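Here is an idea for our session: we take a single protein and study its fold together. Start from the sequence, derive the backbone structure tokens from it, and show both lines together. Once you have written the record down, we can walk along the chain together:
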Amino acid sequence: MPHEEPLPFWLVNVPRDQWPAECPEFLSECGEKDRGIIGTLDSEYKRLTWDQVREIIRINRVDKFHRVPSDLRRYRQFTHRLVKEYGSILNFIVNERLQWKSMVPRGRPFEFEEDVKILYNDWPYGVDSNIVHLVIWTKFELIEDPNTDDLTPEARQEIDDYVQKTFCTSVKPDNVIWFKNWTSLKSVHAVEHFHVMLYGPDAEFINMITNGDVPMADKVS
């Protein structure tokens, strides 16, 4: 048997009749980490369980969250197009997803509903399909300690209180968890946000708090 060369990362998970002749532009600048993920078969990817998700957040290793390989490929293709069409991912988020005319908060953190918007994470991580991943966007800053790049105790308490009030009245507290990305991991830097993950929430509740939102991953081919 002749030795079979491994596929280039940019052909993995792509049907043979759709193989491009060369590496697509949207993948040409992938770092080593993304190349490794995209070059993995979806069938070999292990989705994280709820217990694993909770542990990753508990130890603050959110860098361990990855997308399913084919989803990461689609995400790279989508964001590449956004930059060309909107100038930046930020412009798309503010104008199309948030539709905020002003970024100036009306009041103190979490004081007014209009200063907060709950949407799906457009390109969720490779986790158990029973987990719903939301992003909480805010017009106000969530204060971080410049020495640690972590939230101040006051900001953490503000988020805790908001999450308890907003989610834990409809979802069991053990099935609710939140985190804020390290600065180095943020894909959108100029709009404040944090993440909430819910295990097995009621679909009507999610539809209500997101105002019928649909993640971009379900809208684009």
Residues 12 and 158 are 44 Å apart (CA to CA).
